[in-house]
Amino acid sequence: MPTQLSVNVNKIAVLRNSRGGGEPDPLRAAKTCIAAGANGITVHPRPDRRHIVAEDVYRLRDLCRGAVELNIEGNPFAPARPGYPGLIPLAEATRPEQCTLVPDADGQITSDHGFDLARDAERLRPLIAALKQVGCRVSLFIDAGTEQLDIARDIGADRIEIYTGPFAEAHAAGTVAPALADCARTARAAQAAGLGVNAGHDLSQSNLEDFLVGVPEVLEVSIGHALFSEAIYAGLDATVRRYLALTGAT
Ligand SMILES: CC(=O)[C@@H](O)[C@H](O)COP(=O)(O)O
Ligand SMILES: NCC(=O)COP(=O)(O)O
Questions:
Q1: Sign of the dihedral defined by the CA atoms of residues 209, 214, 220, 225, in that order
Q2: pTM more than 0.90
Q3: Which atom of ligand 2 is nearest to the CA of 226?
Q4: 87-94 helix and 117-133 helix, angle to the nearest 10 degrees
Q5: Under CATH, which number does the domain 4-247 receive?
Q6: Domain spans of the chain?
Q7: Which residues are annotated as part of the binding site for 3-amino-2-oxopropyl phosphate?
Q8: In this predicted model, what pLDDT tens digit does every residue of 135-178 receive, in sequence order?
Q9: Is the ipTM of this complex over 0.90?
Q10: How is the subunit organization of this protein annotated in UniProt (predicted)?
Q11: Cβ within 8 Å of residue 118, ≥6 positions away
């Protein structure tokens, strides 16, 4: 079965929020991704509303329903606050096909580590049960190299998502072998425990093929930052030419 691609549209909302209007619209970007064949849409609404907000998630829910998987990421321990309902209430309201739980602290620039399963398991257990109750598949964000994946299965998780930031960094530095081996070992341990394996963070056209060759049977990758960076470069030439046609310079 080919690895499914879920496009993370956070970055479209970063650009939109920088001007305070409605453009670019994550919904329109998601529509284009789905029309191009993407298998899912990922969002990571953060309590500080820096990019995707709950209102986006409701609209994306309607767009994805019956078409592709909606994957909502977030810290299940982060409390609700004005403008942020909390991950579990948001999932209860929107019933995404998948929720990926990520242990992000407030104000982190981006996700940079997975759960400590031995420490976090008992707090996660009832939250995973609540998500399963509304029909979500539950995936836990996990560092490559993590042992004890039986714990993840025992508390009710369906999948893990391997945090691929260190792999991507090592790939760019030309020293990828140990990081890739860590990812492969963790994937095998998760699969042996009966869990599915997703992966994400800083995956790109430069490193994805090597990752998928080195780590077998990855069910889904979620990609945002690099995908939209690459899309800017891919579309820039044609866009400049269209403006020049409008100014009469060509
Ligand atoms: C969970 C994860 O891996 C992150 O990549 C995250 O979804 C990205 O979040 P930001 O777009 O806020 O950096
Ligand atoms: N779960 C990872 C994700 O959704 C996208 O991460 P990135 O490609 O924006 O680093």
A1: negative
A2: yes
A3: 8
A4: 30
A5: 3.20.20.70
A6: 4-247
A7: 8, 19, 202, 224-225
A8: 999 999 999 999 889 999 999 999 999 999 999 999 999 999 99
A9: yes
A10: Homooctamer; tetramer of dimers.
A11: 148, 151
